[in-house]
Amino acid sequence: MGEFELIEHIKHLAVSPEGVLGIGDDCAVLPQNGDLETLVSTDMLMEGVHFLLDDIRPYQLGWKSIAVNISDIAAMGGTPCGSFLSMALPPSFTSEKIEAFLEGYIHLSRRLGCPLLGGDTVSSIGPLCINVTVTGTCKKGISRKRSSALPGDGIYVSGTLGDSAAGLKCILDRCKHSSASPAAQAPDSGQVCPDDYSYLISRHYQPVPRVELGVRLASDPSVHAMMDISDGLASDLPHIIEASHAGASIDCSLIPMSLQFKRFCEQRGLDPLELSLCGGEDYELLFTAGDQFSPAGLPVTRIGTITDARVLEWEGQNRIFEGYRHF
Amino acid sequence: MGEFELIEHIKHLAVSPEGVLGIGDDCAVLPQNGDLETLVSTDMLMEGVHFLLDDIRPYQLGWKSIAVNISDIAAMGGTPCGSFLSMALPPSFTSEKIEAFLEGYIHLSRRLGCPLLGGDTVSSIGPLCINVTVTGTCKKGISRKRSSALPGDGIYVSGTLGDSAAGLKCILDRCKHSSASPAAQAPDSGQVCPDDYSYLISRHYQPVPRVELGVRLASDPSVHAMMDISDGLASDLPHIIEASHAGASIDCSLIPMSLQFKRFCEQRGLDPLELSLCGGEDYELLFTAGDQFSPAGLPVTRIGTITDARVLEWEGQNRIFEGYRHF
Predict the structure, then answer these.
(1) What is the C-alpha radius of gyration for chain A, rounded to an integer number of angstroms?
(2) How far apart are CA B48 and CA A88, in angstroms?
(3) What is the largest CA-CA distance in chain B?
């Protein structure tokens, strides 16, 4: 079973009670007795699959571990309330590394008002494994699901896409070169400007989830479907159109890209469109909104339109883009 | 850092906001706007540390994975609402095994009204690792903490202690013998009655958390401190007396033991008191209650009294009992 087949199998087994949103969106949504709903998101990060300890500092790993979960809460329009951290710790992940990990974790959790409230620690005979669960709340009925896109809606993304994927390329190149002899270094390895390099790597290691923007968008009734971009737009947009029984047309010339990202692609001879659409881990918001929506003053860009054609069209591109899959 | 030092370090870093109960009890407790509170508990189970895949069937592992978390919700007097399952899956944990695991998981989750609402799956290059988070609710202000024991309170436990530890011994013996030559088999290996054997193993693999009893006890104002027994009474009772700044005196002759457990200990020449106090994974409730408490009709036994002496006394025993530690 691949990742998506397994999720389908679990969905089939796990029937949610009425009034509860279970498997299939960024978060689960549980009713409360008052005017709020509880949101819950959980993610597991595994050494060797999601990160290599040679490539990421413990501080950055701590930061990223909680960031990816808070991003799921943000994508529903929720406010995070607290987090729960489980760690399977191999002997090589020393006390010093645990402290640095916790420093990064606590740093972002304080910044976003999401205190660490519990967890579990076990010793591991294998790789480091981290599981984070974040709970949040939102006003009853306003959480934004993937299934609410309507034909005619504009399709928007926050920030810029591809920076994280470019950052990962910088990191992997650095590793490749540091383990090769100097003579074997790629001729282009020194050409990325150090500031661009730092920016792109930081976007990969220390994403800042769009909590404020998510809350703002969820309070606007013209905003319909919403999710975060974790596997790349080319992989995540299909979730919205499938869940909404709709199609989409994307104007590829409108995909927002940072200057740093564009320079990086040019210097490396990479296709910026391919990297920005198919690279994962942007942790930006993807949402659809009706005509009444005004993006003025918000860090968002309209990139296309929801259609009723049940296809995903990349305007002006005679090709298909595919996102990242973990399995 | 050992397990408890690490938890102390994290507690120091993770300051809970006012009105929120964070690290240090069975669950976190978060306020809701209505008349309820949200409870959250999380546990990680690691192959090679908490279980061996040669010893436990996937169905049993699925059952146990959710049982241990629901037990934490029960220990606060809460009702479980939903669970979140993350799995790091090595290639050896085949689709067939995943299905059996989910069958056991879903079986107990349905029985206790705690649907599977979300999770994450990743591929693992190392051991199988499972993380479960359970959310629950209870009426505002009634969740039972470890810190509420009062001198003079009776100390009670539910059910019988030691069955799970005896079950584990049965399992480990079976493994030892199946890998040894027949001539090397211990002379006593065939003496445990098959029904006792099944009972004890089932108590180890398929504990049933005390949800109904926990809710019933939390509704009784004479019940003060409460927790579940996961590391053995000798390890868990100190958490209550430390948190309550009190002491305890236990009448060892009152420790409730099943007939199956007593027969097992006799046949194996084991000390039943040692095994029932120090063996872990009972998942029974441990609580303290004032004079007004009536245990009539409840599956609970009074085993001692909370004192103001700041020591834990095992009456009539000139020895110290120590519980199980995972690190």
Answers:
(1) 20
(2) 12
(3) 67
Estimate the share of chain B in helix, then strand, then coil, as percent rounded to the nearest 5. 35, 25, 35
Per-residue pLDDT of B113-145, as tens digits, reads: 999 998 898 888 888 999 999 999 999 988 888
Residue A136: count other Cβ atoms within 10 Å of its Cβ: 29
Helices H / strands E in chain A, number of each: 9, 11
Q: Which of A311-315, B7-11, B269-273 has the highest mean pLDDT?
A: B269-273
Are A88 and B129 an interchain contact pair (Cβ–Cβ within 8 Å)? yes
Query: In which residue are the tokens 């690490």 written?
Result: B6
Structural contact between residues B265 and B271, judged by C-beta atoms closer than 8 angstroms: yes
Q: Which residues contact B47 (CB under 8 A, 6 or more apart)?
A: B53, B127, B128, B129
Nearest to A42 among B15, B88, B120 (CB): B120
Chain B residues with beta carbon closer than 8 angstroms to that of A91: none
Share of chain A above pLDDT 90, in %: 65
Chain B contact probe: residue of A40, A95, A128, A135 with most B CBs at under 10 A: A40
A127–B126 CB contact, under 8 Å:
yes
Does the beta-carbon distance from B15 to A115 stay under 8 Å? yes
Residue among B50, B117, B120 minimizing CB distance to A16: B117
Counting one residue from chain A and one from chain B, the pairs whose CB atoms sit within 8 A come to: 226
Question: Which DSSP helix (H) or strand (E) runs through B158?
Answer: strand B154-158
Give the CA distances from residue A220 to residues A47, A112, A224, in Å, rounded to whole numbers and listed in that order.
39, 22, 9
pTM: 0.87
Q: Is the pLDDT of residue B195 over 70?
A: yes
Give the whole-angstrom CA distance, residue A282 versus residue A275. Answer: 11
